[in-house]
Structure formats: structure tokens, C-alpha cells
Amino acid sequence: MSSDHQLSIVVSYGDARVEFSGPPEVVMRSLHEFVSKVVPNMDLARTITVNYSLNDLIQMFKEQVRITPEGPRVWAQDKKLSDREVILLQLVAAKIASLSNKSTTDAMSVGEIESVTGLYPKTISSRLSELSKSAQVERLDAQGGGKYRISTVGVSRLADQVSKRARAAGPGQP
Fold first, then answer.
1. Whole-angstrom Cα distance, residue 99 to residue 10?
2. Which of 1, 6, 81, 164 has the least CB density, counted as fewest CB within 10 Å?
3. At what angle do helices 121-133 and 110-117 cross, to 10 degrees?
4. Quick one: 114 exposed, middle or buried, by C-beta within 10 A (0-12, 13-18, 19+)?
5. CATH number of 54-169
6. How far is 150 from 147, CA to CA, in rounded Å?
7. Backbone phi, then psi, for 148, in 5-degree steps?
8. Alpha-carbon span 97 to 67, nearest angstrom
9. What is the mean pLDDT of each run of 10 residues along the chain (174 residues)?
10. Which letter does DSSP use for residue 102 in this model?
11. 87-133 confidence digits (pLDDT tens)
12. Phi, psi of 8 (to 5 degrees)
């Protein structure tokens, strides 16, 4: 084989894309290294990565929230929900609206939460403070407006609460 023969390959795996060029034996060695080291690590990292998509959120909370012409709303008014759950569901609804381009932001102020949930501002502030301390909501102070959005931890814990409640209610009950 002549020394002027070069091998070039492009490998795509998930979001990773690499190109190997050079003598065939060097390219094959590099490819083998990539596959043996990177691919298992990427699969391992994927098993501990949590990032809820729009579809995930809709599937998890389709019985509790709706996106209406008036905006995102908690739709479970007849259920016995705690103030914390109502606030978290409202923030989930805002996140769904944002991800589906029905709203420009997934963050809400105390006043906005009050106007759509009917909860008292003092109650909302107290619950948001607790939820912030437990990392279930994030306070966004960049604009100084005191807006809040649900965190990934908040989505996970709320989904657990909602599913436990649904199981306790029995089959056929949301």
C-alpha cells in the first residue's frame, strides 16, 4: 500500500460528530478508541441525564394543566390540591406554554400566580420561599422582577406526587 493513501471517515453518534483522517491503520485505531471510550460514556451519561421535553411534561401533567386562550392554567380546581401543588402546577403550565411557543417565558411573578390561581399573595410568597429552598423552583432576579420558574427537581417531585395521588385514587380516576 502506498503511503499517499489517506482514509477519512466521519462518525456520528447521538450529538457527537467526529472526523478521522490519515493512514488507514491510524484512522482505524482512532475509531476503535472513540467507540470503546466515548460511546459507553455517552450511554452512561445519558442514563443519569434528566431533561423534560414538551412531550414529557404534557404526558405527566395532562390531567392537571391546560393551555387556554387566556394562558396556562391549573385545570384540577375540583381536586384537593395543596397550595404548593397548585403553584408548582401553575409553573409547569407556564413551562409547557413556553416550550410550545404559546408564551414568551416560563417564569411568573407572585402577582401573575395570584391572578390565575386565586391564592393570597402572602401564601404564594411563603410557598415560593419554601420551594426555592428545596430547589423545586428557581428565582430569577436578573430583571429584579422577582419571577419564578419550576426547576427540573420540582418537575420530578411534582410528577411523583401526582402519580402517587392518581394511584391512591384508584383506576379510572385522574
1. 33
2. 1
3. 120
4. middle
5. 1.10.10.10
6. 11
7. -130, 150
8. 6
9. 76 84 86 77 70 91 93 81 95 95 94 95 96 95 78 95 80 58
10. S
11. 999 999 999 999 999 999 999 999 999 999 999 999 999 999 999 99
12. -125, 130
pLDDT at 18: 87
Cα separations (Å) of 84 from 5, 15, 126, 131?
Answer: 66, 37, 10, 8
Report whether 85 contacts 161 (CB < 8 A).
yes
pLDDT at 173: 58
pLDDT at 39: 72
Residue 72 corresponds to which cell in the numbers above?
396556562
C-alpha grid cell for residue 146? 422577582
The predicted pLDDT at position 38 comes to: 74
pLDDT of residue 44: 66
Tally Cβ neighbours within 10 Å of residue 87: 29
Other Cβ atoms within 10 Å of 103 Cβ, number: 18
Where do the domains of the chain lie?
7-48, 54-169
Note the helical H segments in 68-146: 83-99, 110-117, 121-133
Residue 78 is given by DSSP the state T
Tell me how far apart the terminal alpha carbons of the chain are, to the nearest angstrom: 69
